[in-house]
Design a protein that fits this description.
CATH architecture of the largest domain: Orthogonal Bundle
Largest sheet: 5 strands, antiparallel
Shape: globular
CATH superfamily of the largest domain: Transferase(Phosphotransferase) domain 1
Order of helices and strands: HEEEHEHEEHHEEEEHHHHHH
CATH topology of the largest domain: Transferase(Phosphotransferase), domain 1
CATH class of the largest domain: Mainly Alpha
Oligomer: single chain
Low-confidence stretches: 300-305
Helix content: 25-40%
Mean pLDDT: 80
Strand order of the largest sheet: 1-2-3-5-4
Amino acid sequence: MCERTFSGALGPYFAQIKQIAAGGNGRVLSAIDTRFDFPVCIKRISVANKDECRAALREIRIRRRLRHENIVGLLNAIVSDGTDVSEITPANFRETSCIYIVQELLDADLRQVIESQTRLSDDYVKLFFYQLLRGMKYIHSANVLHRDLKPSNVMINVNSLQLMIGDFGHSMVLDPKYSHGNSVTVCDTSLWYKAPELILKTAQYSTASDIWAVGCILAEMLLGRPLFEGENDLEQLELIIHAIKVPSKDQSNIRSFLTHEVNTMYNGKPKFPLQTKFQKVDFQGMLQFCIIVNIATYCGRSEYNASFNT
């Protein structure tokens, strides 16, 4: 069924086409590239309107510039008639209903790996966390914000244990030397990995927002479950402030967001301190590792830096 549906754009170069996932901005397919007998992952993105088209082209532009061993590689991008995106003209692009992004196919995502284990060993956590930070360092050095980091967007090669960051559908270029003002679009990132300043809408996106998500992913690998599992923005913020001490200068913003009942009970101190959630974790060893990784990753050699002209 799926193979017949997508044969117009993907045949005869792709075979054994199967849908493996569906998300907010498209469907994900697996296939075999018949020219090289190579398994690939194909992301189908609808471009029914100007906003969808702009987002798809932005993702392709960003991904074509990001080449790193901890980032899912982009192999090709074609439109619904099978033409390469770089070869189409404005005239025939108006008739395009979708774009297919062809990329590497990996065995599993980090969410599946975490759920398949009772608890990841510290060695696995350290290996995956190092690669995740390494990939994020490269992305941020290109002035790119991912904006949708979560375990299901982090891919794993099960045999080599190589980690690759994927799904740049919400990513954007942010030049730190340029004031973007109100031009930064709002992105509905997955709630459990959303930084508190974004919940409060008190700040625009920055690399700090991505690093908050990285921290949540680290906690999830250590715990075997998400750190904060709120059902809405308010509940998510309550879970955060009950685990992490909020600086006095930020409490007024938080109190304006909370309900009257929660405000009455909240005294600015965590009700369930974060360390109580990690009683089985070797804090000293993990802290030393995190310090070493931060130094190695964010003060690394210049050849690991990317550049992106905005």
